[in-house]
Amino acid sequence: MDCHDTGSTNDLKWLQWAKRLQALAQTGLTYTKDVYDRERYEELREMSIDMMANYSKVNKEQIELAFAAEDGYATPKVDVRGVVFKDNRILLVREKADGAWSLPGGWADIGYSPAEIAVKEINEESGYEAEAVRLLAVMDKRLHHHPPEPYHVYKLFIQCRVVGGEALSGVETSDVRFFREDELPELSVERNTERQIRTMFEFLKQPDKPVILD
User: Which residues form the Nudix hydrolase domain (predicted)?
Assistant: First the structure.
């Protein structure tokens, strides 16, 4: 779900409050056995949906459908990005969704380790076969100037190296290229920011740079 990047601190606060309300409601609905408490948690969830609809481009029905699939104890979602360098260039893929560029990656799937997710996403989105080398960063998405969104997301950046394959676009991507740091294209800021890409280049220049942990 896309949200306005309003730049307003007040708007961002409202969105954070709405996400927190949704998480409390979801967790409450998971564990409560009292019919009256269930009604209160349903009301809390409805309030959070109204708040998100007010500060996003997404209509209320779409938000309700997204949250209807969420149950159990509320936890952050995990986005895994594969970081591949070749000849001092970084691998980026062009997203069909917005026409901008990002590190190959996506939501972590059940049944895969973080390293396996990075390798799988690189292959599906770029055509390259890769192997995971090391974890570079674990970032809380809300702290890194991405557009606001309904979910609380942790981003894992995992360095990988190419071991085979060839450049091929995928179902969600339309182009595959390696870019120097001084020639970065328009980036899909929902997925990665310029600062994050430049931080990945710091790991290339400083192999002993410690893992970044928010």
Answer: 75-201
Is pTM, for the whole model, over 0.70?
yes
CA atoms within 13 A on the CB side of 51: 22
Assess contact for 71 and 30: CB atoms under 8 A: yes
**In the 8-state DSSP scheme, what is residue 145?**
T
How does pLDDT run across 59-114, given as a tens digit for each residue? 667 666 566 556 666 688 999 999 999 999 999 999 999 999 999 999 999 899 99
Angle between helices 35-54 and 60-68 (to 10 degrees): 130
Q: Which of 66, 91, 114, 78 is nearest to 173 (CA)?
A: 91
CA distance 24 to 47: 12
CA 103 – CA 95 distance, rounded (Å): 10
Instruction: Please state, in angstroms and rounded to a whole number, the distance separating the CA atoms of residues 114 and 119.
Output: 9
Encode pLDDT of 145-180 as tens digits.
888 777 789 999 999 999 999 999 999 999 999 999
Tokens 């959070």 appear where?
48
